[in-house]
Amino acid sequence: MQQTLLANRPGCAGSALGRSKNQPTVAAFQRCSRRGAVKVLASSSGNGGDSGGPGLLQRLGRVIKEKAAGDFDRFFKGTTKTRERLGLVDELLALWSLEDYEEALEELEEVLISADFGPRTALKIVDRIREGVKSGRVKSADDTRAALKEAIVELLSCRGRSSELKLQGRPAAVLIVGVNGAGKTTTVGKLAYKYGKEGAKVFLIPGDTFRAAAAEQLAEWGRRAGATLGSFREGARPQAVIASNLDELRQRTCKDPSDVFDLILVDTAGRLHTAYKLMEELTLCKAAVANALPGQPDETLLVLDGTTGLNMLNQAREFNDAVKLSGLILTKLDGTARGGAVVSVVDQLGLPVKFIGVGETAEDLQPFDAEAFAEALFPREVAVAAAAAKK
Ligand SMILES: Nc1nc2c(ncn2[C@@H]2O[C@H](COP(=O)(O)OP(=O)(O)OP(=O)(O)O)[C@@H](O)[C@H]2O)c(=O)[nH]1
Ligand SMILES: [Mg+2]
Prior knowledge:
Layout: E1 2-3, H1 26-35, H2 37-45, H3 54-69, H4 72-78, H5 80-85, H6 87-94, H7 101-114, H8 119-134, H9 141-156, E2 172-177, H10 184-197, E3 202-207, H11 212-225, E4 228-229, E5 232-233, H12 238-255, E6 263-268, H13 276-292, E7 299-305, H14 312-323, E8 327-331, H15 341-349, E9 353-357, E10 365-367, H16 370-377, H17 380-390
Parallel strand pairs: 2-6, 2-7, 3-4, 3-6, 7-8, 8-9
Antiparallel strand pairs: 1-5, 9-10
Helix pairs in contact: 1-12, 6-7, 6-17, 7-8, 8-9, 9-16, 10-11, 12-13, 14-15
Bound molecules: guanosine-5'-triphosphate (GTP) and magnesium ion.
């Protein structure tokens, strides 16, 4: 199957994928990009105008984050199951007393472990609260709740690394990787929708050449998001498909320097993190992006299925070793009570969570915000209701 949204355009030398013999070299691309794409980048970077450029995506990132903050309901709804699992914390805190705080902290640790915070991370959180009690800073149930949230926010703030996408190039490229069924293609679609809606020109590369249905799924997301889908050929080597798509884009920009996409999203096939050959293929995919667009991809994001809980830690380690990740996207948090795994993954891997998936629609991808997350898991109103019920 071949989809040719770019291929066979007037002025193109034919289908990108049917041209392997005549493909220009990387050096040729770079020569052209010096005259074309890079010139566009330079002319739009300094003025802060709205006509595109690297600044555009950073501004859009902020806009998307601000809008999401106003849409706390969706975030809140998406974390319902985890919050329910953590409901025991409210019961514990309703019975809180300074005399037997040790017992309460042990139970708190168990509740956190049951929500997949993981033993190490749960212990860290509880230890911080214990320190607070010993220093006299934590006295009441309210103080304990505040200390709990504070500890979670601190762990999630991940050694100062930002949860915003760092998209500096024009075009900026994002490589999406992960195991089978994690939610990669859906996430690519949601990202295209989000950035497209704010005015970015988005291009999708169907790097999952394993099966035709993958490209069809991406095409459907592309239609919804108003994004352009690149050429696809079932069974082709994904790194070749990525390279030829980027080459098509280079040719377009050579012809018309204003014809530049802001954001290129590269979907890839699901693969087991233990399959050496497939992981090696992924490194070639990343290299194909870097060859065509020096300095890219700006982001290499691992999509993790939130319902797998702590098993995702091993996946993240292997993918990080293979392609050096810049961040994580956790999906399906709406379907799991194991959302605490977010804290554990950030704590143990030192990689920031950039977005979370809280449903299957285009709107259900939320920029990750540590404070909003802690607030969603331990909302104030619930605490007030629990205290009222006790009286
Ligand atoms: N509830 C829920 N479902 C999701 C979310 N993200 C993805 N899904 C669903 O998960 C399933 C798999 O999603 P895909 O995007 O096809 O996953 P993938 O990683 O591309 O899969 P492969 O390409 O086969 O490896 C689909 O049914 C999606 O609708 C989410 O945040 N919440
Ligand atoms: Mg897919």
